[in-house]
């Protein structure tokens, strides 16, 4: 990691610190262009917004998908205080961002949570694959 990338990652950690000071969950992220220009910053607002999807990584992925063309998105790097959760990872993948750099891994994060985080919800299926494939078949071609 370059000194400029370390500076940007430290800024993400600072956003997380400020978020916690302001009563939000302690997560912060920023999106930078290839030359290191900060394009947008965000912090977690799940509690304030009463929106379980108000993670900073998801906010930045949405912003990039809405505001950047695919080539510009692919040239960005997201710097984030913690490794993105599966929800955010899916959004990041779909938004076409170039890369993600995080300060704290998911495993390290889980060790800081009593009980290790949220309980897993059981999922069952596939239950009707032949019927469910009909509306999807051909959509991606």
UniProtKB/TrEMBL annotation:
Organism (species): Actinomadura parmotrematis
CDD domains on file: nucleoside_deaminase (cd01285)
PROSITE patterns named in the record: CYT_DCMP_DEAMINASES_2
Protein name per the record: Nucleoside deaminase
PANTHER family registered for this protein in UniProt: CYTOSINE DEAMINASE FAMILY MEMBER (PTHR11079), TRNA(ADENINE(34)) DEAMINASE, CHLOROPLASTIC (PTHR11079:SF179)
Record-annotated CMP/dCMP-type deaminase domain positions: 3-114
Pfam families (UniProt xref): dCMP_cyt_deam_1
Top-level lineage group: Bacteria
SUPFAM superfamilies referenced in this protein's UniProt entry, alphabetically: Cytidine deaminase-like
InterPro entries: CMP_dCMP_dom (IPR002125), Cytidine_deaminase-like (IPR016193)
Gene3D superfamilies referenced in this protein's UniProt entry, alphabetically: Cytidine Deaminase, domain 2
């Amino acid at each position: 990691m370059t000194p400029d990338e370390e500076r940007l990652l430290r800024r993400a950690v600072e956003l997380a610190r400020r978020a916690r000071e302001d009563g939000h969950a302690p997560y912060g992220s920023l999106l930078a262009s290839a030359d290191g220009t900060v394009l947008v910053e965000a912090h977690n607002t799940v509690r304030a917004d009463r929106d379980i999807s108000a993670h900073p990584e998801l906010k930045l992925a949405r912003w990039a998908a809405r505001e950047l063309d695919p080539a510009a998105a692919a040239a960005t790097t997201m710097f984030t205080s913690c490794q993105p959760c599966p929800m955010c990872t899916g959004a990041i993948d779909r938004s076409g961002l170039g890369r993600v750099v995080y300060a704290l891994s998911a495993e390290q994060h889980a060790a800081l949570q009593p009980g290790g985080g949220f309980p897993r919800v059981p999922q069952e299926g596939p239950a009707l694959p032949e019927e469910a494939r009909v509306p999807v078949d051909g959509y991606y071609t």
